[in-house]
What we know:
This protein is an alpha+beta fold. Helix content is 28%, strand content 25%. The chain has a four-stranded antiparallel β-sheet, with helices on one face. Strands 1-2-3 form a three-stranded antiparallel β-sheet. A two-stranded antiparallel sheet has the order 4-5. β1 and β2 (44-49) form a beta hairpin.
Amino acid sequence: MIVEEIMQTEVFTLHPENTVGDAVRLMREHKIRHLPIINDEKVVVGIVTGHDLKNALPSCLREEPNAAIYDAPIEEIMIKNPIIGHPLDFVEEVAVTFYSNKISCLPIVSGGHLVGIVTTTDVLYRYIELTGANQPSSKLDIRVDNKPGVLHEITGVFHAHKANVLSVLVYPDSDHQNSRILSVRLQVINPLSIIQDLREKNFDVLWPNLPGVQL
């Protein structure tokens, strides 16, 4: 999946000569937390976040409209030359950029001009949709040997139960170096018979784990 599929194209912006007060009003009016700062050619020259404003304002408990900071140009507090992305970047790369640089948004630029913005919320919502966590479903965590063909064996069990697979994630197993954890989301409400079949085939189902119940 690429960035242009999830980016917001309606982007509220300011210019460097706009004031801090302008940024406060715009964020409150549209309930947003990120404002790209552009010049007359729509080139991104900075960015301001709600966190930046909170640090700059004299009080986080009340507005002081007469404080000089409200009249200061936004360029005095903006992050200059921010990290930017491209519409054809992969969403996974954007997530890594957020993680590595500890940032919460990425202006998206094409041809040198601002065309959109992606935030951590956008990435999180799409992750939820892709994994099917927003649908009626069941999640199974299964410890498997790290060998070819094991996924085929497990999906054979799902096929026998006519269970639709919404997503499969693979994690390292912190307790067993030669194993992996498969986190599978199935479009079924009651997976007990599936779990029983998996265990009969010697697969280690870690979750759901029902205390006191032998499956």
